[in-house]
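Re: that chain you flagged

S.,

Sorry for the slow reply, it's been a week of failed gels. I finally had a moment to sit down with the sequence you sent. For the record, here it is as I used it:
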Amino acid sequence: MGYDGVTLKSSISIGKIYSIHYFEYMSDFSFGGEMHNFWEFICVDKGEIGVTADKTFSLLKTGDIAFHQPNEFHSVQATGKTAPNLVVISFECYDPAMNFFRKRILKIDDLERNLLANIIIEARNCFDCRLDDPYLMNMPQKESPVFGAEQMILN
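Prediction finished late last night. Pasting the structure tokens below so you have them in one place:
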């Protein structure tokens, strides 16, 4: 009797990572906006922010995550009430499953929040740059990254 292996299927495959950021902004921070041909999400770790996606404005609070689809103009500004902390990750993905995230704002729980925190930790292990520079356009890889750090981010 032989073993039959199972080939696991990926629901969402990430092609490239363009940015992984953790920002601790001042309460008066404002980012005028940008548009690019890859996905991005912004998650509020602390405080609140205003996000514009195309012409739609939304107020995000702690635990909210908003997705920006490719070629969608988006901007962010602190509300002036609190100094917000944000996780922002941008990536390439062409899988049809990403359609679920178009124009979506979701709420994350503690488990998902910890997963994002782990991505930030692993990014520090494999990229040779600051993760708090909003104008950083390239993330150079470390010459000797921690083994498995990139795999953990990909997972």
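What I noticed first: Residues 17-154 form a domain with the Jelly Rolls fold (CATH 2.60.120.10).

Talk soon,
D.
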